[in-house]
């Protein structure tokens, strides 16, 4: 049996979690004060994912850059591939919140979307 200690990031409480694993199977989760903590802990030790946020260049806009993020979380191991795929991306203004900047980034099936308007 393996024991992992985590801090939950699902809400502002930041509960200290203890996850007991038998090989790759979660046996128990303790320390959480809500259901979200249990869900977070199980996912984090078996298939960790993250939202990727960064910026891309804007051409002919009121700003040189626009903030973007993955529409959904992506596997943690794909973060650097996602950022690399955006390194040379330039979009033409105007850009609106929710516009898809890159579809299926790094083969994840997840789109990169704008999080800011740029005129």
Helices and strands, with pairings:
Blueprint: E1 2-7, E2 16-22, E3 25-30, H1 35-46, E4 49-50, E5 53-59, E6 65-70, E7 74-75, H2 79-86, E8 90-92, E9 100-102, E10 112-114
Parallel strand pairs: 5-8
Antiparallel strand pairs: 1-2, 2-3, 4-7, 5-6, 6-10, 9-10
Explain the overall architecture:
The protein is of the alpha+beta class. Helix content is 17%, strand content 38%. It is built from two helices and ten strands. The chain has a five-stranded mixed sheet, with no helix packed on it. A three-stranded antiparallel sheet has the order 1-2-3, with helices on one face. The chain has a two-stranded antiparallel ribbon with strand order 4-7. A hairpin with a 5-residue loop joins strand 5 and strand 6. The protein is elongated, with a radius of gyration of 18 Å. 19% of the residues are buried. The model has no long low-confidence stretch (mean pLDDT 96).
Say how many strands there are: 10
* SS class: alpha+beta
Rg, please? 18 Å
Helix residue percentage: 10-25%
Ranges where pLDDT stays below 50 over 5 or more residues in a row are none
Shape label? elongated
How far is the first residue's CA from the last residue's CA?
56 Å
Query: What is the helix tally?
Result: 2
Mean pLDDT: 96
Order of helices and strands: EEEHEEEEHEEE
State the major sheet: 5 strands, mixed
